Amino acid sequence: MKITVFSGSHKGREGNTLIMVDEFLKGAEEAGAETENIFLIEKKIGYCKGKFECWLKTPGSCTIRDDMDDLLPKFVASDIAVFACPVYFDNIPAVMKNFIDRLAPVLLPHFEEDKMGEYRHAKRYEKLPKIAVISNAGLPGQTNFEVESLFFKRLARTFHTELVAEIYRGEGEIFRGKNNIMLKPLLGKYKKTLRCAGRELVDNQTLSEKTTRELEKSIVPASLYIKFGNEEWDRLYEENKVD
Question: Domain range holding 9?
Answer without folding.
Answer: 2-240
